[in-house]
Amino acid sequence: MMEPGLYHLLFISAALFFIGVYGFFTRRNLITMLMSVELVLNSVNLNFIAFNKYLWPNKLDGLFFSIFVIAIAAAEAAVAIAIIINLYRSHHSIDVENAEEMKF
Amino acid sequence: MSGSTIIFYMLAALTLVSGALAVTTRQIFRAAIFLLFSLIGIAGLYFWMQYEFIAAVQIVVYVGGITVLIIFSIFLTQQAGELLPKEKIGRQVFSALAAFCGFALTMLQLYQHSFKQTTDQPIAPSVSNIGNQMLGVEDNGFALPFEVVSILLLAAMIGCIVIALRSKPATA
Amino acid sequence: MNDFLQIPMLQVLPFGKDIGWALLLIPLLPLAGFLLLGLFGRKHIKNSSGIIGTSLLLVSTVLSLYTAYGYFFEYGKVNGVYQKLIPLQYTWLQFSPGLSIDMGIILDPISVMMLVVVSFISLMVHIYSLAYMKGEDRFPTYYAFLGLFTFSMLGLVMASNIFQMYIFWELVGISSFLLIGYYYDRPSAVAACKKAFIVTRFADLGFLIGILILSFYAGTLDFNTLIQRLTSSSAPEFQTAVASSFLGVSALTWALVLVFIGGAGKSAMFPLHVWLPDAMEGPTPVSALIHAATMVVAGVFLVARLFPVFSMSPPALQVVSYVGVISALFAAVIACTQTDIKRVLAYSTISQIGFMMFSLGVSGSGGENGLGFTASMFHLFTHAMFKALLFLGAGAVIHFIHSNEMKDMGGLRKYLPITHITFLIACLAISGVPPFAGFFSKEEILLAAYHHNAIIYWIALITSGLTAFYMFRLYFSIFWNKEAPSPLERAGGEVHGEGGFAMMMPLVLLAVGAAVAGFIPFGNFVSSDGKLLESAFHLQFSIAPVALGLAGIFAAMWLYKKQNNKPDAIAASLNGFYKAAYHKFYMDELYLFITKKILFNLIGRPAAWFDKNVVDGMVNMTGNTTQAISEKIKGFQSGKVQQYAIYFLAGVIGLAVLFIYIWK
Amino acid sequence: MNLTLLILLPLLTAVVILLMRNAEQVKWTALIGSTLQFVLAFVLLFAFRNERAGGNEAQMLFELQYNWFPAWHISFHLGVDGISVAMVLLTAFVVIAGVLVSWNVTKMTKEFYFLLILLSLGAYGFFISLDLFILFFFLEIAVIPKYLLIGIWGSGKKEYAANKLALMLMGGSALVLVGLLGVYFGGPEKTFDLLTLSRGHIPVQVQKICFPLLFVGFGVFTALFPFHTWVPDGHSSAPTAGSMFLAGISMKLGGYGCLRVATYIMPDEAKEYATIIIVLSTIAILYGAFATMMQKDLKYINAYSSVSHCGFVLLGIGMLTKTAMTGAVMQMVSHGLMTALFFAVIGMIYERTHTRQVNEMGGLMKVMPFITTVLFIVGLCSLGLPGLSGFVAEMTVFIGSWQHPDPFHRIATIAACISIVVTAVYILRAIGQTAMGPIKEGYNNLSDAKWNEKLAAVILIAGIIAIGVAPFWLNDLISPAAEIIMHKVAGK
Amino acid sequence: MLNDFLILMKSELVITFIIFLLLFIKVGKGMKNESLLSLLQFLLLANFIAGFFFNETGSLFGGLFTTNALIAFQKSILSLGVYLISLLFADWLKKSEHMPEFFILMLSALLGMFFMISSGSLLMFFLSLELSTIPVAAMTNFDLEKKISSEASMKMILSSAFSSGILLFGISLMYGATGTISFAEMPAMLDGSPLQILAFIFLFTAFAFKLSIVPFHLWTADVYEGAPIAVSSFLSVISKGSIAFILLTALYKVFAPMHELWYNMVVLLSIATMIIGNLFALRQQNIKRFLAYSSIAQVGFILVGISGNSIAGTSSVVYFVLIYVFSNLAAFGVAGAISQQTGKERINDYKGLYQTNPFISWVLALALFSLAGIPPTAGFFGKLFLITAGASNGNYFFITVAALNLIVSLYYYLRVIRAVFMDKNEQPIEKINLHPSTKLGMIICGAGIVLVGLLSWVYDYITALTM
Predict the structure, then answer these.
(1) Is A30 on the interface with C (CB under 8 A)?
(2) Burial code of D140-174, b = ≥16 C-beta within 10 A, e = fewer?
(3) What's the whole-model pTM score?
(4) Which of A33, D190, D241, E46 has the most CB atoms lying inside 10 A of its own CB?
(5) How do residues D407-424 score in pLDDT, each as one tens digit?
(6) What's the rounded mean pLDDT across residues C269-290?
(7) pLDDT on residue D449
(8) How many domains are contained in chain E?
(9) pLDDT category, C490, cuts 50, 70, 90?
(10) Is the four-CA dihedral E430, E436, E437, E441 of positive or negative sign?
(11) Which residues of B touch A71 (CB under 8 A)?
(12) Contact call for B91 and C642, based on CB within 8 A
């Protein structure tokens, strides 16, 4: 096998990204959808770190970006979960297909 | 093949396989656990790249924070052991196709791209460098984003409180 | 600010005698009558409106006679040639340099002659109507319309500009429309007035296009200039007009034929004559005025006015003469079968105008050749007298008997002596019995035709015989034939006299005219070139027509003097022909077919349908399609957040593929 | 003479109307306002003629210019030439008559008059603006009031008609907009100023695109075939004053635009497209006339006849001769007055008989002599009787059209001429069935016109006769302006 | 330094100050909603007015924060919008249990937008974008008792999380391809390679998502419908406005080297957005949903202006947003007032509204006419300038499509007008009692709608700022 490098990491990251996207598309449970989003965000972080390390190590932009992404992900997850819980209270379900009242 | 390479592939496999399982398993707790593994795998990759700080943050925030949050919310909203409803096969195929197309497209661009590279002196991602820059207000300082994120977290918290702790109607 | 309020100054041409303003009064007085009676007649001056209208017209007539006297005997003639004088002219509407509609007054023999005819006949009718129309609800309106008509007719004959003529031509048409439709609550009158207007309008279309062509080639609308430019074969205007052709016919001929169509419409020439018999729905004096003496001869006048130009185009003249002669014969045949006395007179009018028309057609220009022209004008003049007289007489009869139908009449000579005599004079005049007026004019016409075209001559000869026959058929049917029923029975105890002085005076005056007008040496005044035309009288030539006329009279006497069944027998023997003639050779039906079936069903209805369904449909379809698409694509907004995300990603991928690979 | 007065006065009137408390006050305010407009229009006319008589040869008089949106080179540029003055006069006539005939409106009187006055504002602004942007601004201002007038106070399929009208007119103005932008960016310099544009030369390839856009865009307003279909529905559903404004003023906006904007600043393509314009307008003339023949509803009759008559406007423009163009403008003025009067009369009749179907009426002359007389006059004007305005305008168009010697123009002219016969047919049918004939039952006690109706009719008839009897003043007004346009077209 | 800091960041500081003030009030004794609202209205007004003073050009934090007079003006527009929201929805706010929190969240979001407009790097952009989104997602759920409110909120947070993911992926690729996240350094590094195009598209779609550009718009209608009207209006006006502003900076400055690419993309998306927005708006019954689609169509027009790629483009977009604030808020304000008192949100319910409520009917009519671009309302000028700016490229097809879309949009705006003014109704909406500040808000909006267009110096002022 090849010596692992930038492209390997990019492959992992892209794969993870689209795994997350796939999950987001197919999961009906809101929490699992949220989890898929987390995967997506993590793949992005991986990108940032990989680019930072292999291409642009002169600055720590990538690193910082991923730190902030993690923070944002936390905030987003928190709000999302609050919303999901609230939704659960009113709908008694967190199946996304039960929350399709508004359409067309 | 060096040990580092082996470790890399193992981490990569861990990340991707558990990531894939996290979005496909029908048991929600397992999904959460697989997510956890995947996140840990990513943290491992950070370690592997010698970005220890970010790996630590990853473990603290994700593994320690978000996943726990998710698991709690699963407790709140789901009977344990209950299988997730089955997804429609058409949707699955279509989603997989879309995701794969996206993936292929992205990978194609990535592999065809000849990345430029800096020739400047690298900065070590050490904790002290990170700390200095994080609170720096000059060039390459990240004090402002830090403040912004703190306000965001504050706002998110308030939002969460209002929504999640909604009082029963007509109670003080 | 002042200049706006000033009408562009009347341009008074240098002219020995300043009679411009007096001339202007001739048409303006009837117009004033129209405005006065039209605006205030109904409320304020209802009872005196007849008097007002009549006196205004009286002044006008006096002025006309004064003008005629002045023109013919004082200043009109220069070096033995009657001049075309334009005492007044101002630019009404300027299109481009040289091309403008001018309002002006032209004085030449024919316009002066027409001036006299129109104002005189109109005055007679005004006076006559004072009695005839008395008690009508819309008495002032009637006089207002008469005023409008007289104004228009006077404007027409004095027009110095072809477009001015067209303007008054139209005004004449509309006043005729108003007068025919005077009894607006009678459906037949409404139909008749519409028909009259529309048919003449159709003909006017030809006139208009003719004017357009003429104006284009001549570069002017002014009669004098136009005639000048289009009659000298060296003028460039003339050469282009002759050189350019369409469908193998020169532009000049086209123009003239089209103008003639206009004239034929107004003059009720075949096949545009259909409106005239129906127009008898109007009050009888109106028929006398418009449909006998004045308006219907406008077509003849038009051709006469443009005669120098016509004479440059033999084909156009041929058209004029054949249309004229065919109308003359055709109408005469129909007249023999009609039973409504006004209709008989109407057809007789058509026939007589046909005479005038073909007379123009067979005329040449200048000198002896111009006999037809003079004859035509002469006949116009005399015809005005006796035809007006006939109509007014018929009016008196109808006034008395309350019916238009011959079968209701008979033996009226006892009750209506003056009417009887004057009517007889008129009949003799029209039949061409010497020495009445019609004799002289008709002889000249026949003479002109004889010199020019044998076919036309023979047809004309036969027609003149027929004329005598149907006129006397009318005369005998009214005044002789069966015994009149007692007027007491007819009118429910109320006996009408002959209508009093107001009605009788015009009859008498006109009868005098019809009797003696023939002795006027017409050629001295009116000729195609303004010069003196000695009309030689050939006794031997007169024998045939007079004999034929007398034969017609005796035939009529034989058939109609006493009540008998000979006419029916003859009618029966002629079965098909008689029926066709009785039904006016189905011309009305033909028109009805063209309008109802073709115009309405094949053009109007499809146009309306097309508009409603296709044009409108397109617009509605655009709207509906938009709505339908909107309804169709609503599925994209499925309410499923995951689907939204899929579209999102699809959008991203789509854009990426598009911009990376396809649209670089 | 300050031209802003023409905009400020209606604006002021509209504002005052909004402040009024009851219907009576509103009506009188509107009447006073429109009377002042009327006076102002005449003051303008006199002032204009004085200036001209004084030897002022400038193309536009009383110009004034404020910078409005300097970033886009937009200025509030006003000015009038003879054509504008004629159109302003027309507007003033129609407005005052419209206000008068609406005297009986009881539903939302204030709003009604407000919208009427607003409409007049748009029209005045349109006719006097020399900047294409503000021209467009005023063009669009005039659309929505129409929509509301029809939708609120209309009758019949009013919503459908209002929608159709608003959308089609907006569609037209959308095309105008694109055309204007094309001129702005494609022209010699970035400007909306009409005079500047007319002095420069717009590249032919720009004209090729923009001319049809502008012409069709404006054409929609003036019922260019086949974009005329809003006319019958819109007119027939509108309240009386609405129809009057619509046909009398609003349709003229389009004709004016076609002439002043499209043809004037893009003469090269005007020549190129002239054939199509002529064909379309000839179709409109004949087809409108034939379609009218089949109508039973008085308002539809007048609406379709408007299509036919407005065809003359476009025909005159398409013929590209000075005389035809003068005729086109005359026809706009004439048709404006005539059709306004026609609708006014129809409104009066409808108010009394409660029907507009001609075959349900008959013999109305007996009970309403005034109204039927007016009907006669307007009908006769419509069929082109000399002495009334329609004749003068149509004849001028004919004469102008005939100045082209080639068969195509000839045939088009003759075809257009044919319409005068068809017009006679339908007008006489309509009049014959409504006014003449035996009176129908139930109509015996109807009343004749009231003072306001009489006044309105007299004003409009005065205009019609003034043109018909003395066309030279209008001709003197218009033809120098038309000549300038023709000079541009001829490339001098 | 400190002076710079205080002056350049004054708007952000004021907002932060208000947020903390609110926090203290909430944590402390608390205040009556009514008086707190008045206080806030006053503060927001003060903030708006303060926005016009001491506007200097400069940057802070090593280029992460930049500002100039135009940016300050853009912030003022947003402040104005928030002020108007506080006025228009006074009734709803007053009754809300969580008014202080609502304001904290709204002001945080506003703060995020301020930072976003001023941001000098992709990091700041991303963070402030999230700051301006996440609180709004929470606010969307403020009608706690309503099911659709939770649903809307859920849709919003999940969609925006997804779009954040896409955005971040794009940023990461862009970072990899250029090595920088700073706006100032980026243009030099752009060479238009396929990867950069891909990254740009990923990045751009995030803007597209926030601006509701088709096909990234699908969340919009559902969220607007479910959210409290105050939040819908915030989303539709202020959110959109801020994104439009930053999009201008991003496209005109940062991605200037890729001009050709984004021009085509903007044209394509603009056409799609206008058409789809209009087509969907045609058949809506719910007024909020209706306004959502109408705002999508409006965004299509904003894109037309953006495609101009010129100073005129910038000034037209800013100008349009200003007008759009007045117009759309007026429409939402009316819808809110009616919905608050009667709970009616369907267009059919509006039938005969004019009979009972002439004032708000006129306000609504003005607003809709302005949205439709009918003179003399300001919307006419706004749209016209957008189209004019877009036309500068000579793309007639595009401009024609835009102009024709105006007709379709007119159709559905007229539908509402028709319901309000023309249709008859047995039971029209009863007389609405307007809160004084609501009325004030409507009057301000109405005046804005009329005056901003006619008074040309407003546009001149913006142009001057743009130079």
Answers:
(1) no
(2) bbbbbbbbbbbbbbbeeebbbbbbbbbbbbbbbbb
(3) 0.90
(4) D241
(5) 889 889 988 888 888 888
(6) 83
(7) 81
(8) 1
(9) low
(10) positive
(11) 61, 149, 152-153
(12) yes
